[in-house]
Amino acid sequence: MGEMSVAYDRSGTGPPLLLIHGLGGERHIWEPVLEHVTPERDTIRVDLPGFGDSPVLPKGTKATPWALAAGIAEQLDELGLDRVHVCGNSLGGWVALELAKAGRALSVTGIGTAGLWRGPLAPKPYLMRNVSRALRPALPALLRAGGVRRFALLGSVAHPERIPVEAAVRIAVAYARSPGFVNASNNMRANHFTGGEQVQVPVTMAWCEHDRLIARPRKLPFPARETVLEDCGHVPMYDDPVAVARVVLAGSAEPAVRASTARA
């Protein structure tokens, strides 16, 4: 793919932990969780290629989850990191699994992980995104109204009222402006996760009780510990940051990694 540098923030101390956002998101979505995680983890939050402040993939490249993972792996190389704990939300969870397949993960924690459907999904119209793009200049003013904010965010979170106005604006603007959105969405929906036998690290799959976007699969293609984030929507970081942090820390705990090594 060539050299690929993605935008990231890094803070904290401890074992390295990579946090990956979902489709249409960006790295700041993890901010509510940071105060609970950074005392115990060297935390790296990235923008996927084509999202946030990261450049798009090279022209003609399909933004499949494995291509996005390759872009993130190049950033890990640049940081001098071979293997890291990885936690991803939605599409980010799928990218985390691809990093595990590539031998770059110490553990994987997926939250509302995409791609675990049985086959490709039908193409999806982008009505809401097109509306958001058209209204982008007015979004800061519109989202100051509680009713508008609730309508705009209810598909992703269970409690829109817990999101500060400034954060809601940032989330909506990121969704509207991501140049890699359509490429990533089309390639996400046209595929499903395969190669579960190549995931040889501890995996935790967290499912969100009020997820309106991704259903919990009946069976996983790899061994995993499963848990439920109660009273949370698909993007749960603002719904319950303490519960999310608890899952992230447990999923990246060293005893789990040692147990995985013993099984290998």
Describe this structure in words.
- The chain is α/β, with parallel strands linked by helices and 264 residues long.
- The chain has a single domain (8-124, 184-263), classed as Rossmann fold (3-Layer(aba) Sandwich).
- The chain has ten helices and seven strands.
- The protein has a seven-stranded mixed sheet with strand order 1-3-2-4-5-6-7, with helices on both faces.
- This is Dihydrolipoyllysine-residue acetyltransferase component of acetoin cleaving system.
- Its EC number is 2.3.1.12.
- One of its GO terms (cellular component) is membrane.
Which terms summarize this structure?
EC 2.3.1.12; AB_hydrolase_sf; dihydrolipoyllysine-residue acetyltransferase activity; disordered C terminus; Rossmann fold; AB_hydrolase_fold; 7 strands
Can you tell me the residue ranges where pLDDT is under 50 for at least 5 consecutive residues?
A: 257-264
CATH fold naming: Rossmann fold
Number of strands: 7
Backbone structural class? alpha/beta
Order of helices and strands: EEHEHEHEHHHHHEEHH
CATH class: Alpha Beta
Any idea what the shape is? globular
For the record, the CATH architecture stands as: 3-Layer(aba) Sandwich
Keywords: Acyltransferase, Hydrolase, Transferase
Organism: Paraconexibacter sp. AEG42_29
Protein name: Dihydrolipoyllysine-residue acetyltransferase component of acetoin cleaving system
Domain AB hydrolase-1: 17-246
